[in-house]
Design brief:
Elements (H helix, E strand, L loop, with lengths): L3 E7 L3 E8 L4 E5 L5 H10 L5 E3 L5 H4 L2 H8 L2 E5 L11 E3 L4 E4 L2 E7 L8 E5 L2 E5 L2 E2 L2 E2 L7 H12 L6 E4 L4 H11 L4 H15 L7 E2 H7 L8 H6 L7 H13 L2
Helix pairs in contact: 5-6
The protein binds zinc ion and fe (iii) ion (FE).
The site of fe (iii) ion has 6 residues, from helix 2.
Amino acid sequence: MSFTVLTIPCRSDNYAFLIHNESTDETALVDAPESQPIINEINKRGWKLDTILITHHHIDHVEGIDVLIQEFNPTIYGNQDDNSRLPKLDVAIRDGQTFTICGQEFQAIDVSGHTIGHLAYITKGAAFTADSLMALGCGRVFEGTFPMMWTSLSKLAQLPEETIIYSGHEYTLANGRFAITIEPNNPDLIARIKREEEKCSKGIPTVPSSLKEELKTNPFLRANQPEVKRLLNMEDANNVEVFAEIRTRKDNF
Ligand code: ZN
Ligand code: FE
């Protein structure tokens, strides 16, 4: 990769991501949960801020944008189809559109479900998924439907396995406590929970993760697995029905 990504803890459990290309000295931010930790990081490194990519309208992903505009005057990208609920966009994009920032081509893909109009930003080797696909979990389905969220997760599941998943929150241990109720004997899941607990005990973020480990351990991506269907006594159910069952159980967990 021609860029580096910094994970910036914000608020109580949010993450923002700074993407920096050393050779072009360009920096982009994915989501602005608050401004101060981001300003501190940019100033500490002597960077500027060229671009902000917004994933979705929730306040814990956009609240810092106004102050960051005053401080750095970045170009704001977000979903044209949700622009009435987003901060003012300089570049309004749509599902499937590509653009180049930090010397790198990105594609926005619609991953609605958590909200309608949620975008993920994909580039070679990395996906910024916010509250769609999360580490060992997925966002709660607030505005969309279960079929919609399943479709969104399925798009992300088809990326190359080595893709690094940059998601929006530190929810991983709680997600793990739920995941193990779905697949109590999944050895990859058992090993991952142990790894993530160790990271958390040292104050290390569990985000990002890799798509490869999500495919092996994330119950929401595994709704299409015969093994998971069997464990839920849903052998004859379709993938969406199984996803809906798992998501509903998590909501009540
Ligand atoms: Zn959200
Ligand atoms: Fe969020």
